[in-house]
Write a structure and sequence with these properties.
About 45% of the residues lie in helices and about 10% in strands. The protein is built from nine helices and four strands. The chain has a four-stranded parallel β-sheet with strand order 2-1-3-4. It is globular. Residues about 1-30 and about 35-50 have low confidence and may be disordered.
Length: about 170
């Protein structure tokens, strides 16, 4: 009901005559917003189009893996994992298969990729060689309704370098 009043107000506002601003007076100075509309506005801010930070640092990824709080999906091709190496505990789903893989039944996913399929509510971290493909995979997963998606921007190259120095 409160939202309906807000929409009625919004429909009325464009019909008001608008004159050039004088001093600091604005249209909102003359129209009071009902408290219920302000509450609805605050709730709707949760659906902001602002991008949240989706990058994960080396330290954050190490912590997520140690605590078992993330599913790490490596989107490189299988030959890249054999040639360069991989992050322990990651599941290999090549970038070209991410869209269909994330729509499989969990049993099919486990059989095809030898790992647990992430749920839409899981914290999923995508990784690749240098952070480009993982960003694409992140966008694909987000478009499929995955909410806790992030990517390790440094990729395998950064991981291997940091692991070597420890």
């Amino acid at each position: 009901m409160a939202l309906r009043r807000c929409w009625r107000l919004a429909a009325f506002l464009p019909r008001l005559p608008v004159s050039p601003p004088v001093g600091r007076l604005t249209l909102s100075s003359f129209v009071s917003t009902p408290p219920s509309c302000r509450q609805a506005e605050v709730r709707l801010r949760g659906f902001s189009s602002e991008a949240r930070n989706t990058d994960v640092s080396y330290g954050q990824l190490k912590q997520l893996l140690a605590e078992g709080r993330a599913v790490v999906v490596d989107v490189r091709e299988p030959w890249e994992l054999r040639e360069y190496g991989f992050i322990p505990g990651s599941v290999n789903v090549p970038l070209g298969q991410v869209n269909t893989a994330l729509q499989l039944a969990p049993e099919e996913f486990r059989e095809k990729y030898d790992g647990e399929m992430p749920r839409r509510t899981d914290n999923v971290v995508f990784v690749c060689l240098a952070g480009i493909r993982s960003k694409t995979a992140l966008n694909t997963a987000a478009s499929l309704g995955y909410r806790g998606v992030q990517h390790y921007a440094g990729g395998w190259q950064d991981w291997a370098e940091r692991e070597q120095h420890q």
